Amino acid sequence: MLTISKMKSFVSSSSFSTLSPYFPITASPSFFSLPSKSPRCSPTFTQVSNYFAFKTPRISFLSTGISSAQNRTGQTAATFSPPSGEIHVIVGPMFAGKTTTLLRRIQSQSSNGRSVAIIKSNKDTRYGLDSIVTHDGMKLPCWALPNLTSFKQKFGQGAYDELDVIGIDEAQFFDDLYDFCREAADIDGKTVIVAGLDGDYLRRNFGSVLNIIPLADSVTKLTARCEICGNRAFFTLRKTEEKETELIGGADVYMPVCRQHYVSGQVVIETARTVVESHKVECRTPA
């Protein structure tokens, strides 16, 4: 008689359901799709549902540096590779097309299927707080904030995680520009496109824009057309008597000029100011 030994049968009872790649969030992120043809077309807003896609962390297996540990333990070591972000800077004088260039790059990124958001300083109220508008009329929705640090909180952590590209306009008004850009690109893997003035009306460093040059993957310096001679304009000449650095205005306050007419214009303005001041003193002097 054949004796059959009884063996325990181990049957896998795992019944894990497939992990849903979506998790609810509390606020709707303000993603939008941009026109793919004419830059002057009005943007088409897309309401994103209250879910964001779960991203699987990228894992790279090291072939060197951990081999001895593998020999001793027989285990394969893994390390999380940091996300790859980018920083691109656009600078130049006023009326050089910095905002237009920024919006076109944002539009291109959106057309390629990447999620985008635009930030501007809430100090700039010339065209309303909820839009970024170029001098030639191109307009897109944006986040108007007092600082960049508050963006992640206001945007929502879940929505921020899904964000691919961040555009920053009028960057000279943000004191926390350096820290925000470094963290967004180096740690969070975002592509950050920054547009702003590299110098004020006295050709001095304006804000923190020049501080992020060492962080940048690319730097683009645009030029305008000198309003006096028509040559390339690298500088911004203030036409009024105000002396504060931050004076928001358009063609009524500023004009792009070449080097020659910047220097001569400054001389004329300073001479005019001296005459006006001396005239005021004479008026105050009792007879």
Distance between the termini: 140 Å
Estimated helix fraction = 10-25%
Order of helices and strands: EEEEEHEEHEEEEHHEHEEEEEEH
What is the topology, as strand order, of the major beta sheet? 11-8-12-13-7-14
> How many strands appear in the DSSP assignment?
18
The fraction of residues in strands falls at 15-25%
Radius of gyration, Cα only, in angstroms? 28 Å
In short:
This protein is an alpha/beta fold and 287 residues long. It contains 6 helices and 18 strands.
Account of the protein in words:
It holds the Pfam family TK. Belongs to the thymidine kinase family. With about 290 residues, the chain is an alpha/beta fold. The chain is built from six helices and 18 strands. Mean pLDDT is about 75; it is low at about 1-80.
Describe the SSE topology.
Blueprint: E1 22-24, E2 32-33, E3 44-45, E4 51-53, E5 59-61, H1 67-73, E6 78-80, E7 86-91, H2 98-111, E8 116-121, E9 131-133, E10 139-141, E11 143-145, H3 151-155, H4 157-162, E12 165-168, H5 177-187, E13 191-196, E14 218-221, E15 224-225, E16 232-233, E17 235-238, E18 254-257, H6 259-284
Parallel strand pairs: 7-13, 7-14, 8-11, 8-12, 12-13
Antiparallel strand pairs: 1-4, 2-3, 5-6, 9-10, 15-16, 17-18
